[in-house]
Amino acid sequence: MIKYTIRRFITMLFTLFIIATATFFLLAAVPGDALSSRAERLPENIKENLYKKYGLDKPILERYVITMRSMLHGDFGESITYEGQTVSSIIRDKGPVSARLGIQQMLLGVTVGLLLGVVAAIKKGTWIDYLVVTLSIVFISVPNLVFGLLLQKVFGGTLGWFPVIGWPQGDDLLFGGWEYTVLPTLTGCFAYIATYARLLKTSMLDVINQDYVLTAESKGLSRGQVIRRHVIRNSFIPVMTQLPMSVAMCITGSFFVENIFSIPGLGLYYVNAVSGRDTSIVLGNTVIIAALYIIVIFITDILYTLVDPRIRIRGGKK
Fold this sequence. Notes:
The chain is an all-alpha fold.
């Protein structure tokens, strides 16, 4: 266990290093920079001072070394688009907004998706199964942008049940202002519903045909007992594989949803940073997303042993 943890930790650090390096040089290869539009109208001496302030006057390799050294100390640099703000301060201030939105979307979407997946597998070949499959195809095919605009039009505009834009502030940031969160949460949860409903249904149908399930039925266990004790638990391994991406992305923000509903989260800042070529914000967010994803994958590997005790951390089986 200790050797496995150390090996995985070293692999995680190396992976983050590769991601940060690749992101830096890809951003540097893009023509222009975040100061181009501003600096072209300024006097030459002010332009030089501006580029010097953000270190853009240095050669690319020197900038790379400075950037990597700063990142080792947790400093991702200062934003060019949002003058006076650092990447760390933006993440600290806007991270809770994206985290709440993403967690609500994931909890609702994954819960409903798993329930629909179980029902579709149990009712295979019935109209319920076909309804779940149809809904899953629609939910995964239609972009969040379309769902968001439709929900705004119907429930925000025509019926006037919920606010169209905005997000809870102040004391309501984490646990209040639920009326502002309903439409954004629904908009982002449809993709989770489609993904997990189809995934669990397929996995359950595969497990149902296994020999040990047929043996359990032959011993006199009822259909419900077989599904609860054997089928559902063993069907959750593919679900556990999908969860890391869902958890990491739910924390870092829903880009389109935040733009549609004018939610001041990381997604909105990230989109503006990409369009404005703000390399500090893009690099910082990319590395943090990668770090979250890698950490959750590591935790998921450990959770595999809880879902299936036959799996061991060392990679073998009994």
